[in-house]
Amino acid sequence: MTDRFARALWLEPPYACRLRDEPLPEREGEQLLIRSLYSAISRGTETLVFAGAVPESEYSRMRAPFQDGSLPGPVKHGYANVGVVEDGPPNWIGRNVFCLYPHQTRYVVNADAVVELPADVPAARAVLAANMETAVNALWDAGIGVGDRVTIVGAGVIGALIAGLTAAIPGTDVELVDIDPGKSVLAEALGARFRAPDTATTDRDIVVHASATGAGLDSAIALAGFEATVLEMSWYGATPVTIALGGAFHSQRLTLRSSQVGAVSPSRRARRDHGARLALAVSLLADARFDALFELEDAAFDDLPAVMHRLASPDDNSLCQRIRYP
């Protein structure tokens, strides 16, 4: 491979992927040439794309910012890349940046497509920025505030980030609920209490669901107090989900609300755009508690195809799998 080529991961749904050589375009004007240091795989979105489980109605809405190809065919998909600027305007060279770019060794983008990492945000942790942006939007959508009693059902990456942010708000009482007792270590690191579904506290002010299962959503509804909000963060792709809306759902006057990162929360939309929200998400990763979300070992870029197969398995319990570039 020469300096005019890069390597990138292409997903070939269902359940196939490979690394391809990519021609690098010539950098022009104020554009930046970035060499990737780390990327991360979204267990929710990317594995659904990999599995071919995206409904046809969502093909265009699921498009990543720098995606090549179109669903259902082969796509270069992903949005959690941290790199260093190798070439560009002199004031940019050598800076570490986050970009919503797929898994690729080097790439060229406009300067306004990246967020420079603050000095106190390590490059290795900054790959959580896209997921953190989702978590920030969730807190805005849910209206979580001082003293709220909040439960998060599902201790995956999104649920854990929401738990960590919420636990930092003064006076909040935060429980992280999961069927895996091993997640108790994660909850403790984030400043939340761990609970199994059958021991979780009821009568909560806000319940956030992030387990991507119907059973988890049923648990979230059961834990909500009178006139409380249940915020649904999970996206199920083409899989139908059945939930129990009998019982106390109506008598408790519950609000079931969706949250999705594609649009800035209505509560902030008049004053914050996507760029401002992403910059905030990056800055919040100065908090070392969030290192608890990573696997013990990074995976090598060359191993990405095997990693995708592993993460797509229902038996895999990984949280955020970070990819290390050569």
UniProtKB/TrEMBL annotation:
<dbReference type="GO" id="GO:0046872">
    <property type="term" value="F:metal ion binding"/>
</dbReference>
<keyword id="KW-0862">Zinc</keyword>
<protein>
    <submittedName>
        <fullName>L-iditol 2-dehydrogenase protein</fullName>
        <ecNumber>1.1.1.14</ecNumber>
    </submittedName>
</protein>
<dbReference type="InterPro" id="IPR011032">
    <property type="entry name" value="GroES-like_sf"/>
</dbReference>
<keyword id="KW-0560">Oxidoreductase</keyword>
<keyword id="KW-0479">Metal-binding</keyword>
<dbReference type="GO" id="GO:0003939">
    <property type="term" value="F:L-iditol 2-dehydrogenase (NAD+) activity"/>
</dbReference>
<dbReference type="InterPro" id="IPR036291">
    <property type="entry name" value="NAD(P)-bd_dom_sf"/>
</dbReference>
<comment type="similarity">
    <text>Belongs to the zinc-containing alcohol dehydrogenase family.</text>
</comment>
